[in-house]
Amino acid sequence: MSSAFPRLACAALVALGVFAQPAAAQDKADKSGAAARVATVNGVAIPKSRVDIVVRAQAQRGVPDSEGLRNEIKEQLIVREIVAQEATKKGLAKRPDVVAQTELSRQEVLWSAYIADFIKNTPVSDAQVKAEYERVKAQRGDKEYKARHILVEKEDEAKQVVADLRKGRKFEELAKQSKDPGSKDRGGELDWNAPGGYVKPFADALTKLQKGKYTEVPVQTQFGWHVILLEDVRDAKFPTLEEAKPQIAQALQQQQFAKQIQDLRAKAKVE
User: Fold this and answer.
1) Cα(118)–Cα(124) distance, rounded to whole angstroms?
2) CA–CA separation, 175 vs 157, rounded Å?
3) Could you give the CA distance from residue 22 to residue 105 in angstroms, rounded to a whole number?
4) Tally of domains within the chain
5) Is position 214 within any domain?
6) Contact predicate 225/155, CB 8 Å
7) How many angstroms separate the CA atoms of 235 and 223, rounded?
8) Does residue 151 share a domain with residue 85?
9) Angle 241-267/126-140 helices, nearest 10 degrees?
10) What is the pLDDT of residues 208-253, one digit of tens each?
């Protein structure tokens, strides 16, 4: 048996919560016959379904199914069952911290199962994907803008920036005083972005500028006061519906699930 696999298998077993409950409780529904078992440890069956679960988890990690893999998983399950039985004999299964961890593991398995069931029974339609695609595309607009900005706390500070620009001082130099840590060391550069990527007052001011011009009147947003310089404009690059479909479908699925959780939370009696 390789030394690398057992560690990987153990990690997969723990992550899947295979041993979240005492073996006897897990296997009540699995004693339908020897064909469904891979082994029996002190009279307790280890069902083939456990091996299948770990094999699927390993496949997601790039480990192909094989007889050797299944034998190694089987051995790990046998050893775990032996230890689980010994721990139960010692009364460890009733220890408060173990009970708490067991319940958390049970909930984690049920959480994953619920998500999978929800996704299966609440699919995102092509019509939903297309509608969201058109909405995002319209919101983004057909132009992208390359801009710089200087963000300061007070309006008077922003007016002073404008005054300094009128005197011929370089925008990049004045940007060093900006309180935007992401752009101040790059001369205030924000790179290419669609207007929809900015808060509305900023976007409105930006789209009204001519190339090479800056806002003569400072722009206020919830972040402070901005002086904005427009460097260039180009046609927006937007992926096709087919290219964007997987990402949009996933986002919509997440939104649907979040709403389901909110609804369940609202209906639950929490004291």
Assistant:
1) 11
2) 12
3) 12
4) 2
5) yes
6) yes
7) 28
8) no
9) 110
10) 999 999 999 999 999 999 999 999 999 988 899 999 999 999 999 9
Query: For the chain, how far is it from start to end, CA to CA, in angstroms?
Result: 52
Rounded CA separation 253/271 (Å): 30
Global confidence as pTM: 0.63
Q: Which residues contact 232 (CB under 8 A, 6 or more apart)?
A: 145, 146, 211
Residue 256 lies in a domain: no
Tell me whether residue 105 is in a domain: no
115 with 257: CB under 8 angstroms?
Answer: yes
Domain range for residue 41? 4-92
Interval 18-70: pLDDT, tens: 444 444 444 444 444 556 899 999 999 999 999 999 999 999 999 999 999 99
Kindly state the tokens that stand for 211.
């190339």
What contacts 150, CB < 8 A, 6 or more positions away? Answer: 158, 161, 171, 174, 175, 177, 178, 188, 226, 227
User: Would you say how long the chain is, in residues?
Assistant: 271
Place of tokens 């007016």: 159
The whole-number pLDDT of residue 25 equals: 42
DSSP state letters, 116-170: HHHHHHSPPPHHHHHHHHHHHHHHH-SEEEEEEEEEESSHHHHHHHHHHHHTT--
Q: Lay out the sheet containing 224-235: strands in order across.
A: 189-193, 143-152, 224-235, 219-221
Which residues are CB-neighbours of 13 under 8 A, at least 6 positions away? 19, 54, 76, 77, 80
Tokens coding 193: 């972005």
CATH number reported for the structural domain that contains residue 150 in this entry: 3.10.50.40
